[in-house]
Structures are given as structure tokens and as C-alpha cells.
Design a protein that fits this description.
heterodimer, A: alpha/beta, Rossmann fold, 4-stranded mixed β-sheet, 6 helices, globular, B: alpha+beta, MutS, DNA mismatch repair protein, domain I, 4-stranded antiparallel β-sheet, 14 helices
Chain lengths: 223, 519
Amino acid sequence: MAVASPLPASPSPGEKPPAAERLQALGGLAQRTKPTALAREQILPVVPELASLFPGRGVRRGSTVAIAAGTGATSLALAFLAGPSSAGSWCAAVGLPSLGLVAAAEAGIDLARLALVAWPGNEWAAVAAAFVDSLDVVVVQPPGSVKAGDARRLSARARERRAVLVPLGDWPQADVRLEVTRSRWEGLGAGHGHLTRRRLEVMSGGRGEAAGSRRARLWLPRS
Amino acid sequence: MSGVRTLVVWCPDWPVVAAGFDGTTVPVAVLFANRVVACSAAARAEGVKRGLRRREAQSRCPEVVVLERDPARDARAFEPAVAAVEALTPGVEILRPGMCALPTLGPSRYFGGDEALAHKVAQQVEPFAPDARAGIADGPFAATLAARRGLLVDPGQSPAFLAPFPVSALLGAVDRPELVDLLRRLGLRTLGALAALPATDVLARFGTEGALAHRLARGLDERPVAARVPPPDLAVAHEIDPPADRVDTAAFAAKALADRLDRELTERGLACTRIVIEAETEHGETLSRVWRHEGPLTPAAMAERMRWQLDGWLNGSAGVGQPTAGLTLLRLIPDEVVSGGGRQNGFWGGAAESDERAGRALARVQGMLGPDAVTTAVITGARSPAEQVGRVPWGEPRAEPRSGRTTTAERPAWPGRVPAPAPAIVPPVPLQAEVVDADGHPVAVTGRGLLPAEPRRVSVEGDRWADIEVWAGPWPIDERWWDPPAHRRRARFQLVTSTGAAYLAVLEGRRWWIEAIYD
């Protein structure tokens, strides 16, 4: 923590600049004296609608964010990926052969930076581990139930490599847990119209700083 | 000094043969700049000849197949023929696609005389060029003319053989066509007449080009046949002793191999964009996989890929093609080389670095599961959600520019496409479904695209029945009606059940499918 350079308008002794000016200068000083690596920089951005679900208004690198199975889970995962992906992060989807990639593009995900391993088979944990080493966000859909040991190892690896692991379904080691509590489609009538948008209600919980439940309501697709 | 005894193989009408046509039956004309530069025998019989305009050629022979000249195609097609000749003797020189020369001194003695050699060479080339002819004379120029006639000119007889030819025979050999014209107008109509002049006078009057023509006319060499050295084998190999069954031991050898290949390539000013990694095992199995890269591979990148590949072979669970014993030999073959200019990193480093890091991870997973297992998606134009996406294996070029994400507005407009938002779940294979009306009868659509009864309940993959709350449709799709085997008539529906699930359903031939789920 060091002052990079003196204040731009250093007041000469004797006469004091007006208070407003001094306040402004103070803001500049704060900018200059901030630590080189803020905790905030260890946070990946999420879309504004989801920000209220996370304690730091974004997702902390190295954390595991589990998305509970259920209606709307895939759309929620895509909306979650949109934040880091549109900021230039590399993402991966392991074990999601049915992922709607047009929907992913519509959500704002850069498909050129989304690695897809649709059928990892029994190697899903090894594939996820390889991606966690070098990519920023790894969505993984484990086949069947997950062994506690596998989950612990993967989460630990993500923490060590500063990547975000996003398991879909039940995950014993999640730092943040997201769940769609309500989903309602609009635009369709009895025999007319077409699906236009939906209202999602999402609840988050977790452990550590994410403990306690938070709620968010969002429209998808985001306009 | 008379010319080096040379054999020339001449494949008549090579551009036609190279394009895959049988010149004797199909009239073909190859054009360059609207002029016929080559034609097949069948076309010649109809009066087509070199130098005609396209329209003239077509008026003489209306059914003529017209091709554009493609020297690359000619050269590519000629390569196997050259290789076949090279199998007999080294030192083959390609004069141009369709014609190659070789010095006969050694091979003639080996195969028992010029005649036997010419026969042998013609036999070798025959599978690639059925009409190929071989000729032997002193010097390539005389041999070329001999080959056109399929003659063997005795040693020392070349000047006499050449003398009756008109000076226009020089056209292919000297660069200046106007020189040939000038010679003719000066009354030097045959090569013999030109050869009879003193060399110094020819040089003084016509310059170096004239001197060259004079040398050729006298049956001397324009220059000695430069032996075409077979292209250097750039592949590098390393024997592992004792055989390696662990990745780290094999990877150690791989690193040295990659460095060696890189040195070889750098010496030649080349860089490699695709490598073949080969391994042999104690049991004699040969494993091979091709690795491609968007840019030139650095030695570190090659070594890394070899390590991943070895990891995949030795530790993978793929089962098929897995070695049953330790590796005894590693080979690295540059499959595609480009002139090396060094790698260019991104100006600001950051994005390029994270791209490179991600690229390594993706390639590593390819080593575990195979190259096709890791993909990125590209959006293409189509009507159904599943067809709108193409999956490109990592490392293959993506069709769309990599920068920028695909937004709805940039996507090609396809009338009849399902309106946005797109469904979040698109099963690779549509799910079976049943949809019934209030009376429990299956819902169908009439030939006019009308719906006699409203859909009320849906069951997906034999699951519990769910009440349909709201729905829309039918949206008829009549695709490829011009192509009976591919013709499809379908009707799409959107269904939302009371549980909140939304489906994109499709009715085709009285059967319901769930094409996608709006999850």
C-alpha cells in the first residue's frame, strides 16, 4: 500500500481550497492509494439481475456454485455463465449433450470461448479437473450421483486454481447453492401466441459468507 | 561436348488426364485466359486445337467439356507418377507437370540397355498416365522431342535427329517466342540450318538467348540435368530401450524428439502446423494420431501434445486401439509445414495468454477422449433448434470469425424458424411423446394444417400425464418438398404444462416428438 504520486493540486500553505475541491481531491487520493490487488478482482462478474444472490455482487474465484436440478435450472446456468463469458472468460460445459447452444448464444455467452465435452463418460471428473486447471468457469453435469470424495477433490482443485466450478444437481461441497423456486412463462395463450419471456425466482444459500438465503427475481431472456 | 544421355517421359494431354478424364473418348478442352492450352484426343479429332478461343472450340465441338487450367492439380496428379519412376532410379527431374527427365547412364546399365529402361519406365508410369511415352536422346531437349515420337535416338545421333525439325520446336525451350519468329523470317527454318552457323556469330547477332537456341539445335545441353533429390525425410524417430510403459519415461523421449524436429524445421525455415504422432509397441502394434494446430507449433507445444497423446494411449480408458505392451519407438512426422515466421503473440498479452492456457487444457482433454470429443459450437442457419448448431472439434477452424459473440441480429434469417427465445435443452435425439385431447384421443393435424381437437394432456417418454395449460400451433413446416427422399412435413407446437414445463413439440406422420425443452 503506497501513495503512487503526490496529489495533483497540492494546496499551497496559507490559502485553503474550497471544501468541494478538497473532497474531490480526497477521492483521487483514495484511488491512488488502493492496494494493487483488491479482493474485488478475485471476483468474476455476473449479470446484474443475479448479482444480489452473491455476497460480493459477483462470484468469487475458487468457489463452487451448485445449481439445483429442476425446471429452469439450465436457463439459470446459462444466465450465470453469461456474466463471466461476456467479460472474456473461458467456460466449459462437461456432460451436457442436450445444452441448447442457440439459447447459450442468446443469453450472451461467447460460443468461441465455450468448450463442450458432451460425452465425457466415466472420465467426467478427470475432464472437469483438466478444465478447472486452466479455464475460468466449468459447468459439469455428473452422470448419476456424485461420490463425496470426487466432489471434495474437484472443489478443492477449483479453489486452488481460482476457477469457478458449477455442478448441476446435488453437490456436497458447494459454497453457494442456487435454486429456481418459481418459473412462469409468458406469451402463450390457448392456441395462440408464442413463448416470449419468463419470470424466474431464484433463491441462493450456502456456507461461509454466502450463508443465509437471498432471493432474486429476473426476466429471461434478459432484455 | 554432347548432351547427357537423358530419358524423358511424356504424358500427352496431361491437364486432361490430371482432371480425371479419359481423353480418347471424352472431348475435353483446358482453357487459360479464354484460349485452349490443352485438349483431349477426342476433341482434337473434332478440330479443337491449342490457341482457339472458347467459343471457337465450342462451335467446332459443341459437346466439349471445358476446364480451367489448374497447374496445382496437374502437379498433384503427376506426383504419384514421379514417385513410381523414382522407385526405379533416383535423380528424377520434373520438367513440368506431365513430363519428367532422368539421366540414363546408371539405370540403363542396371536394367540392361536403353530400350529395356524405356520399357520399364513406361510400365511404371502406365497406371497413372495410360498414354505415356518415353524417349531417349543426348540432352533433355532432344530427348523431349524423341519422347513425343516415342523414339530412342542412338548416342551421338542427336544433332542429326534434330536437324530436320522446324525452329518452332524451340518454342517450349527458349523464353522468347519472337526469336523463333525472327529466325524463320531470316530463312533459318530448321534446327539443322541454325546449327550450321558458327556459334560466335549467333551469339553476336542474337545474344544469349540465341546462343542457347544454337546449343540446343546442336544437340548440346542447355544445362546438365540437376538431380532432384528426394525431399528430405523430416520425420524424426526415437527408440526407447527398455520399452516405456509409463508416461513420464516416454514423455522424456518425446521432449527430445520435439526439440530435434524443431531444429530440423528451423534449419529449413519451416514451421509445422500439423504433426503425426506415431508409436510402436513391443507387440508390433502401431498407434498413430494426427494433431492439428491453428498456428505453427512450438517445440514445447509439440512435446506437450506428445505427452498428452502418450497419456491418452497409456492411461486412457478408451479400450479400442490401446497398446498391449510398452512403447519401443516414438516417431514425430510433420504432416503440414508452412514457412516459419515465428509466432506472433497478442499485443496486450492478456487475452492471448488465457486463450493459450485454455487451448492447452482443451487439447489435453482431446488427448484423453479423442479429438472429436472437445468441441466449440457455431450457429448456422436452419429451422429446427438442433440443426442450428454445428459443433467444431477443437483445433479445426471455426467457420465464423472468432471475435464477437453471435447475437440474434447477426444470425441468418430463416423464415419458419422457431421464434426466440431459443430452448435451453435440445436433446440430441427427439424424445417420444404422446399428446391427447379432452377425450383421450391422440391429437392430429389435418392435411390443410388444421387442428380438429385441442391438445389437453402430454406424456413425455412414457412419463406421467401432465395437463397442458397453454399452447400454440400448429406451425406447419414443409421442408425440401422438391426432393422426395428428404421431404418432411411437420407441424410444430409450443406446450406449457401445469407443472411449468414448456416444450417444443413436433407432430410428424401422426407421431409426437419433443424436439426441445424450454428449461
